[in-house]
Amino acid sequence: RKEVEQDPGPFNVPEGATVAFNCTYSNSASQSFFWYRQDCRKEPKLLMSVYSSGNEDGRFTAQLNRASQYISLLIRDSKLSDSATYLCVVNLASTGTASKLTFGTGTRLQVTL
Amino acid sequence: EPEVTQTPSHQVTQMGQEVILRCVPISNHLYFYWYRQILGQKVEFLVSFYNNEISEKSEIFDDQFSVERPDGSNFTLKIRSTKLEDSAMYFCASSDVGYEQFFGPGTRLTVL
User: Fold this and answer.
1) Which phi-psi region, left, alpha or beta, contains residue B30 (left: φ > 0; alpha: ψ -120 to 50)?
2) Chain segment A69-79, per-residue pLDDT in tens
3) Which residues from B are below 8 Å from A103, CB to CB?
């Protein structure tokens, strides 16, 4: 089983649509969780950390279900500029340590007019 | 806004040559990392570095790879004898005492 699994997509949605991405992770000892976005041939950029209570940042909402080892990202009112690959990322460590991030392969989103 | 910088943006080298990739992490960060991404594949961890020593390394990070923090600002990745399969984007990242890691723009390494 892959350490972090995501649907590769692509997800093609019209501007203004709501789109949801899902991710599962295999290591139940994982401590911290993130969504990064990556534009073509660019670096991953931190979109948001994901907390057990769920968190929202503008049009973006992330949820974590530790029991199911499942992470989600919801994007409301999609913009053309949201077109990118969304990377689900987990870390075995909590704060204060240098620990590796484990990346999923990413889900590609294309928002169209 | 502080950011991680990397040089060069693109490096072309012959198989068997040594390359050094350079990074300047965010200035108050304590933890440093190298990752790589082969074209079309996922981002993979190579090594983490803290307090002037390697904290963790992956299976990819074999004897051909080394890291160094030669001064208070730079963090380097050296590949001693490059192979064709080392062709990839190499990303440097840094973090403070939290766990959010911030990535540099990457160096595209092409081995011919």
Assistant:
1) alpha
2) 999 999 999 99
3) 42-44
